[in-house]
Amino acid sequence: MPRPWWLPALLALGPVLWAGDGENRGALSYSAAGVVNAASNTPGPLAPYAIASLYGAGLAYSKRAVTEKDIRGNQLPTELDGVRVLVDGLAAPLYYVSPEQINFLIPYVTGARFPTQVKLWVTLDGRRGPEIELPLHETAPALFQLDATTPIVTAVRKPEGSDEQRVVVISKDEPARPGEIITLWATGLGRTQPPVAWPQLPREPARIANWQRFQLLLDGNPVPAANILYVGVAPNFAGLYQINVRLPEDTGRDPEIRIAIGDAVSPQGLRLPVSPKKD
Q1: Which CATH number is 132's domain given?
Q2: pTM to 2 decimals?
Q3: Which domain holds residue 167?
């Protein structure tokens, strides 16, 4: 399914607190409470290969987002403008740094039994910040969001009178339709089959290893498994997963939407804009 050109930047940065320009050479300050899932911006357990955000102070000298030039050898950089994030001593790939926020990818923890605890610290030009402990689970599903109540969802449509397809962002002004194939964007869905060649960017689709335990819930009701067409990594985007699903024909108006892998469920409160066939 095609993706809008702006999606990589939006998903990589997540909810960014844009910092002002200028240097900040104070002590690095952050805590475990300031590490959240970058998709939902909520605290809680994270998972290997999930995109996370760390909030604090004095984390960098200026704001800087990863660019195509930073990707070398098909890998995201592990240092941006002197900033590094270490997870149990492993350098984490970085998406964005600023004095108040860092977005990074949780590395795979070799041989870990979940749930587990990992140690994280940040360095800035060799100056080391405090060491904190983070809980890691096998999965920590979360949907990327347009705003506090709306997930990022896309669909491919043909405008009236045109033979060319275009990608649209589902919203209240352009809601999804029952029976339509939509794509949701998530992080924290865990390992894949075949495994992603860490730390390489994935080049090919690979569905999640726990696909048989995956559920998409609309108003608390699971969508039939036959309607879920693909759950796996989005090629060329590390830590980003896509969920392709055909909405049931009886989908009601603006259902609450959550995803689950076993007992791990995404945060509540998001609603999928849907215009049902019959009101």
Answers
A1: 2.60.40.10
A2: 0.90
A3: 142-265
